[in-house]
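job 3f2a | input accepted
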Amino acid sequence: MKAEVWYNASMGFTLLPKGVPPGKRLFDLLLTVLAIILLSPVMLGVALFIWVKDGRPVLFNQPRPGLKGRIFTLHKFRTMSNAMDKKGRPLPDDQRLSRWGRILRGTSLDELPELFNVLLGEMSWVGPRPLLVVYLERYSPEQMRRHDVLPGITGWAQVNGRNAITWEEKFALDVWYVDHWSLWLDIKIMFMTVGVVLRGKDVNHPGDRTEGEFKGNRDSGSGSDR
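job 3f2a | predicted structure (226 res):
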């Protein structure tokens, strides 16, 4: 299945995205409004820190495929510098990812702006991570099923290996979540996520600062949700 057969339009605000269980959306909205209120001082502090340390932009914005492959703009705090080589090209990721950037990723503080994606109905608290748009045409039909639900800030794959498992394993876990979704499963995953974040477990594949690209169904490297 190729990317062109999927939707290619910004989702925008949706109170109840078509195909999303009302209970899941209500849970997302209530928790998100509360989280934004409580965490706004933290988000402001992180934003000021990035601005002082590395200047603007504070946010990393990138198009990602969401529900049914529709494209939306993902928001994160920026964790990499704008360093360029002599030809004006960005340096490799592992050279631009700073110590504080690794801390933000390891604590998942870089994910906080995604709360606004959840508020808009573009994401959920729990679901398969939204990856790169180019990957749409590299998935098998079975792997493409990960887009049958809203993408999430955390997910079943993230609490069962995070970045220390292969792409195939990650996608299999994503599809398992699609087939077994329940509100109780979402709550379980959120509690498991707290433990994963506190332990800093499987943030990166051993030896890597950033993760490899998914090149297609023959790829067997580690996954990236960055």
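job 3f2a | The chain has one domain: 3-199.
job 3f2a | closed
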